[in-house]
Design goal:
Layout (H helix, E strand, L loop, with lengths): L2 E4 L2 E2 L4 E3 L12 E5 H13 L4 E5 L17 E6 L6 H12 L5 E6 L3 H10 L3 E4 L5 H6 L18 H8 L3
Parallel strand pairs: 3-4, 4-5, 5-6, 6-7, 7-8
Antiparallel strand pairs: 1-2, 1-8
Amino acid sequence: MATLIDRNGLRPDTWHAFNGDAGAIPAAADALIPLDEWRERAAVWAARPGRLGILLSPSDDPAAIAADLDRIALVAVAFPSFTDGRGYSIARLLRERQGWTGELRAVGDVLRDQLFAMARCGFDSFALRADQDAQACLAAFRDFSVRYQGATDDPVPLFRRRRVAAPA
C-alpha cells in the first residue's frame, strides 16, 4: 500500500480504488475510478453516496472531465514509470486550462526526486512508491529556496518578481 503525503506530512487515505468490481467498494466510501469506467457508467457512479475521484492515465485528455469537475472531489494522475512525464502536463492543464482547484494526486511510480516539480505543476498529494521513505520525501518540498520559472504555485518568473521589487 502506498504512503500518502502532502506538503504538511503523512495523510490517511480514505479513497478506495476501483479494481473492476464496483461491489468491492463500500456503499458510502470515497471511490477512485478510472476515466474509462466513468465514461461508461457515469450516471451510476454519480448517483451513489460518497465522494468521487477520477484516475487519469498518462494518455488521457484532462479536457474529457472538464464538464464533470463540479461532481469530482479528487483527480489522481497515474505515473506508471518515473520516466513518464505526461502526468506533469496533465496537472498543468487541469489547473491552468480547466480551473481545477480540488485535490490533485500523483499515484504510481512517485519518487522523492519528483516531488518538488510535481508540486510546482499543481499536485498537492502524493501516493509514494512503496520503497520511498515518507520523512525523506517530505524534505523534498524544501530542496530549493528560489524558484526561477513560473508555475501553478507562483505564475510569475523570478526575473519579473525582481523587476517589480527593484526600486524605481
